[in-house]
Specification:
- This protein has a single domain, classed as L-arginine/glycine Amidinotransferase, Chain A (5-stranded Propeller), CATH 3.75.10.20.
- The chain is 33% helix and 18% strand.
- The longest helix is centred in the first third of the chain and has 17 residues.
- Strand 10, helix 10 and strand 11 form a beta-alpha-beta unit.
- It is an alpha/beta fold.
- The two termini are 40 Å apart.
- The chain is built from 17 helices and 15 strands.
- The strands form five sheets. It has a three-stranded mixed β-sheet with strand order 2-1-15, sandwiched between helices.
């Protein structure tokens, strides 16, 4: 079966702000309590989507969450009118209010894990929303995320949707940020699940400073749900030491596509064992393992530039491009390495730099912003067409952002009841543009 990869990017929400909620994410902590620009963030994301369409790639868009999350605030005991709830939450627990206003669902690499029909037991594309239990603000997302995915990929003939894993740290699941798929020219795939620790094997190495957000047990559970087998799945441990250097997800230190795995020397606990297993399970793919050494790019430079949080996309057979943030061009060690990389004999032939600075300052690069969905042409034809990016949708959504989004948002603005009404008005219109129906609590 021939499959084509589509990228579904998260549309940045109207409450995009810098609250520094993600311990272990260096960029998020560094910019905490800065003033953000939601309008610019959303437009940067839309321009990236349009740029990929212009490259001939399949590009979709996923709607943001409703924020502030009034349902959660009321569940936690704040009562009265919406304005009173926001004011009480701000005065009593401003960090909690910030969590309930987070626009972090923009990073749809954490939305779900997706297995193409070519790999699964029933031949359908399987989706499991990530429970994201390690961070409270992200643990609020999976229910609406699942609902949105079901409206975009609605045809049960081709798509199968699972609920998120149980909300317990033993099954901490961060979605596609710790999952990638390699394949050969015949479409035979191997899904790589990268985990930070094992909850049920206490002798497994674990980081000491920052949390390991993905467990082995979660990864195995998702593989079982999707009907994967031993021959088309592999479970690889991330290097605990690199997690403690700010690599909170595997996609901050490695990226794969087709027959290429591009990663840092420190990415995996057992890099030789990783290579051996992949070669044994995908022997005819002509694999390229591109390892970047510490001497070429120190981990700190890789994290600050998001060298590996790039999108590795296929433009034509044997010709791949890295979609990289402009920070990669501005970091001397990274820029020098990329110049050498594109001159090597590998499928990575070019690098295209894109400005996603508003996302980068909050801890997410180009790869964080997208969920990869590999589909056959028949499956693609069953996707909600209103969610597929083209020139017309780009113009329409850009106009929508310019009409509804603020160009400045400070932590104090999160208590403003007008922001809630602005967000709801915008999202209500968005669900009509994307033909999603009533996916938000305020619509139901």
């Amino acid at each position: 079966m021939t499959v084509r990869e589509a990228n579904f990017d998260g549309l940045v929400g109207p409450t995009h702000n810098y609250a520094g909620l993600s311990w272990g994410n260096v960029a998020s902590n560094r910019h905490a309590r800065s003033t953000s620009n939601p309008r610019q963030a959303a437009l940067q994301g839309l321009d990236k989507m349009k740029a990929l369409v212009d490259l001939g790639l399949i590009q979709g868009v996923l709607a943001p969450q409703e924020r502030p999350d009034m349902t959660t605030l009321r569940r936690l005991g704040f009562s009265g009118s919406d304005a009173e709830v926001l004011d009480k939450a701000f005065r009593e627990d401003p960090l909690l209010l910030a969590a309930c206003c987070s626009a972090s669902a923009m990073w749809t690499a954490n939305a779900a894990t997706v297995s193409p029909g070519a790999d699964t037991h029933d031949g359908r594309v399987h989706f499991t929303p990530a429970n994201l239990v390690n961070k409270f603000h992200r643990s609020l997302e999976h229910e609406v995320t699942g609902r949105i995915l079901q409206r975009v990929f609605a045809d049960e003939t081709h798509f199968c949707h699972h609920p998120a894993l149980p909300a317990h740290e033993d099954f901490g699941d961060e979605g596609a940020a710790n999952h990638t798929r390699l394949h050969d020219d015949h479409g035979r795939g191997l899904e790589l699940f990268v985990y930070g620790r094992s909850a049920h094997r206490p002798d497994t190495p674990a980081p000491q400073r920052y949390p390991a957000r993905q467990t082995l047990e979660a990864s195995r559970a998702v593989a079982r749900l999707h009907g994967l087998q031993e021959h088309n799945s592999a479970f690889i441990q991330q290097n605990p030491d690199v997690i403690d250097q700010g690599v909170f997800h595997n996609d901050v230190i490695a990226v794969g596509n087709g027959n290429v795995l591009f990663y840092h020397q420190q990415a995996f606990l057992d890099p030789h064992g990783m290579q051996d297993e992949i070669l044994a399970k995908l022997p005819d793919a002509g694999l390229h393992f591109i390892e970047v050494s510490d001497s070429e790019v120190p981990v700190a430079d890789a994290v600050n530039s998001y060298l590996f949080n790039t999108q590795l996309v296929t433009l034509s057979p044997g010709h791949m491009a890295l979609i990289a943030p402009t920070e990669c061009a501005e970091t001397p060690s990274v820029k020098a390495y990329l110049d050498r990389l594109t001159a090597m004999s590998t499928p990575i032939r070019e690098v295209r730099f894109m400005d996603v600075k508003q996302s980068m300052q909050n801890g997410g690069g180009p790869a964080c912003l997208r969920l990869r969905v590999a589909m056959s042409d028949t499956e693609l034809s069953a996707v909600n067409p209103a969610c597929l990016m083209n020139d017309r949708l780009h113009r329409r959504l850009s106009d929508w952002v310019n009409r509804h989004y603020r160009d400045r948002l400070s932590p104090n603005d999160l208590r403003d009841p007008a922001l809630l009404m602005e967000s709801r008005t915008a999202l209500d219109e968005l669900t009509q543009i994307l033909e999603l129906g009533a996916v938000y609590p305020f619509q139901r």
